[in-house]
């Protein structure tokens, strides 16, 4: 077989193995190792490339952002900052049709800025927001759909684990990726709020609920006590990166320290909770390092097979336009999103399309934002919408089926698609802060 044929078979094999339940790094690494061996008929070369991939992944200084921001997010979650922000948002939107849904989006956007995890957001707000919406006669599908849709904000609003993974795959600055995600993340949150207003006005039966005015207004002191810790943490992390005072690693370290101080001052962190956060940080960091190492050997395999160049020649021979390439990229991500998780999509698709983007002289930072937003849609689509599964398992409510969660999330997936096309058409939205 030719290297091209081996490369194509390897990509199909990786998708099949991941869908069959094989651990993603194992599938990437094993297939890539065997493919290089077959292409070069040299097992020693395959092992040497694997050794180089491990060294390149583990020795990169900016990799330290992963454990630092992961630890910060876990401590913030344990400190109860998500619930505080939600309570303030709910009070502000209480007189609006679908107001609790809007409050959930706003709180999720703020919470995402200090956790960077859609799974954490889905878990927290499934417990906090859904019961309250159902108690006020909201349609259960709308209630779980809002939480599922807004939870993906954690993947685009920095500090985002997906932006970190993309930065390693595409060899871009983590700090630049964080700054590039700010405006798209805010734009997506605003689009969600506008969609909820539209649904409340024109499809009130889908939204349900009632406008209530029995919530006591908080005093300025209460609002400050519930919001200032989160705002201060965001200012330190993103403000430090934006002003250039802190690198991404230093911002992660500073944010972790401040989050720990906040949790201790609020007396919301026990010794056992602190130990659990440390252990979970280690588990998540090790898993991501394994992913990055596997992605590195996979990229080298694709390069040896010549698949990116072959795809580039194919599109150039057909005089493919910019939008043709982007539509192919989006369709591939949406298709893979029905069977794979976001991390798998980024690791499989990005190495194929990076050379095309470079030839078109487009920003790899912008392409990263487009890729992450496109891959996020897969979090809301069946049969493997991870956020939807997390919400279902967190609620543990037999009256709300997994189908209800997916159907409720569908309008928000459509909103994401619209925002994605806007980001493609106007790259300045992703690059304005750089």
UniProtKB/TrEMBL annotation:
Entry keyword annotation includes Nucleotide-binding: no
Record-annotated membrane-spanning stretches: 7-38, 58-77, 98-122, 142-166, 178-199, 232-265, 277-301, 321-354, 366-392, 412-433
Membrane topology: Multi-pass membrane protein
Entry keyword set: Cell inner membrane, Cell membrane, Membrane, Transmembrane, Transmembrane helix, Transport
A GO MF label: transmembrane transporter activity
A Pfam family annotated for this UniProt entry: DctM
Subcellular location: Cell inner membrane
UniProt key word Secreted: no
Primary site of residence: membrane
InterPro entries attached to this UniProt entry: DctM, TRAP_DctM
Subunit structure comment from the entry: The complex comprises the extracytoplasmic solute receptor protein and the two transmembrane proteins.
Function text: Part of the tripartite ATP-independent periplasmic (TRAP) transport system.
Protein name stated in the entry: TRAP transporter large permease protein
Species of the source: Yoonia sediminilitoris
């Amino acid at each position: 077989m030719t290297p091209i044929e081996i490369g194509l078979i390897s990509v199909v094999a990786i998708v099949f193995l991941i869908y069959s339940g094989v651990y993603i790094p194992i599938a990437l690494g094993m297939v890539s190792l065997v493919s290089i061996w077959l292409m070069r008929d040299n097992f020693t070369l395959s092992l040497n490339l694997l050794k180089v991939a491990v060294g390149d992944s583990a020795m990169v200084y900016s990799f330290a952002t992963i454990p630092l921001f992961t630890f910060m997010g876990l401590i913030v979650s344990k400190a109860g900052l998500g619930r505080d922000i939600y309570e303030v948002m709910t009070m502000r939107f209480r007189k609006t049709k679908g107001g609790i849904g809007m409050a959930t989006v706003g709180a999720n956007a703020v919470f995402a800025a200090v956790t960077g995890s859609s799974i954490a957001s889905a878990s927290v707000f499934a417990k906090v927001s859904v019961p309250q919406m159902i108690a006020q006669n909201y349609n259960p599908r709308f209630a779980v759909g809002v939480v599922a849709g807004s939870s993906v904000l954690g993947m685009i609003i920095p500090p985002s684990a997906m932006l970190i993974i993309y930065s390693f795959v595409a060899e871009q600055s983590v700090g630049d990726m964080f700054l590039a995600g700010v405006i798209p993340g805010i734009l997506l949150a605003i689009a969600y709020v506008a969609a909820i207003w539209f649904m409340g006005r024109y499809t009130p039966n889908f939204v349900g609920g009632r406008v209530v005015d029995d919530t006591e207004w908080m005093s300025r002191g209460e609002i400050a006590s519930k919001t200032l810790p989160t705002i201060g943490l965001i200012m330190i992390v993103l403000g430090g990166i934006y002003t250039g005072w802190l690198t991404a690693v230093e911002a992660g370290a500073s944010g972790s320290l401040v989050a720990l101080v906040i949790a201790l001052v609020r007396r919301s962190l026990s010794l056992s909770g602190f130990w659990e956060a440390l252990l979970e940080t280690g588990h998540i960091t090790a898993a991501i390092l394994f992913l990055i190492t596997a992605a590195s050997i996979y990229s080298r395999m694709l390069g040896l097979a010549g698949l990116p160049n072959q795809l580039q020649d194919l599109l150039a021979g057909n005089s493919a336009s910019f939008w043709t390439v982007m539509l192919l990229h989006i369709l591939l991500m949406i298709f893979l999103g029905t069977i794979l998780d976001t991390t798998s999509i980024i690791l499989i698709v990005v190495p194929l399309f990076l050379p095309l983007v470079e030839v078109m002289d487009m920003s790899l930072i912008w392409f990263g934002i487009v890729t992450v937003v496109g891959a996020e849609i897969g979090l809301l689509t069946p049969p493997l919408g991870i956020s939807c599964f997390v919400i279902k398992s967190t609620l543990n409510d037999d009256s709300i089926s997994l189908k209800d969660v997916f159907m409720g999330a569908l309008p928000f997936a459509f909103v994401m698609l619209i925002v994605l096309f806007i980001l493609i058409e106007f790259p300045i939205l992703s690059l304005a802060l750089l």
